[in-house]
Amino acid sequence: MVAVGELLREDPGSATMPAVAERAGLSLATAYRYFPTLDELHRKFMLSVIDELYESTKGLKSNGMALFNDTMAQWLKVVAEYGPAMVLVRSREGFLTRLQAGEPHARALERVWAPPVRQLLDEAGVDPDQLPYALSLFNALFNSREIMDFRAVASMPDEQLVQRCSRLYWSALQGLRSTED
């Protein structure tokens, strides 16, 4: 995974199976034994990145919007480091379908984002049953491709980007309120 990460950070387009095998000091046959396709290798790498994010956020002591902001700050760091590699992993299914099916990447993102999002739903008076939709909304707004785009176009410091994303997400969550509210 280290070899994959290095290649994907340096030049995602050059991260072929032969290049990964060479960087890892493996024969090409051995590399293919572990990862039959380059897509599978990318997916395994992406899962390791999300796991790294989880490890950096699981001990956060803040609550509510502060927890969301702290988690978002960590997300921005991860995207800054791995973003070009992260955008290589795509799926034909939407986030909700993947989450419901138990797809590993969607579940890993749920593990990271459910605690702060659940707290925001509570603060906003939104039914906790809306969590899957709130997570899907988060994914649509702030996946790695969108964060990279924000950075490229807005060119604002991370602290300001965290605040902008948090306000935007808070506003979007209001749309998940029951129509009876």
Automatic annotation (TrEMBL):
Residues 16-35 bind DNA. The keyword Transmembrane does not apply. InterPro entries: Homeodomain-like_sf, HTH-type_TetR-like_transc_reg, HTH_TetR. The keyword Hydrolase does not apply. Keywords: DNA-binding. SUPFAM superfamilies: Homeodomain-like (SSF46689). Residues 1-53 form the HTH tetR-type domain. Signal peptide: none annotated. GO terms for molecular function: DNA-binding transcription factor activity; transcription cis-regulatory region binding. This is Putative TetR family transcriptional regulator. The lineage of its organism: Bacteria, Bacillati, Actinomycetota, Actinomycetes, Micrococcales.
